[in-house]
Amino acid sequence: MSVMCGRFALATPLEKALVVEESIDLSDLEPMNPSWNVAPTQRPAVVYLDPNNPNGPMRVKRMAWGLRPSWSRPSNTEPINARLETVNEKPMFRDAFNHRRGLLPMDGWYEWMTTPVGQQPWYNTHIADEVLYAAVVHEEWKGSNTSHTSFAMLTTEANEDCKKVHHRMPVLLRQHELSAWVREAVLPSPTPAGTVKCHAVSRDVNNANNDHKGLIHPLPTLF
Question: Which residue from 190, 160, 219, 201 is spatially nearest to 7, judged by alpha carbons?
Answer without folding.
Answer: 201
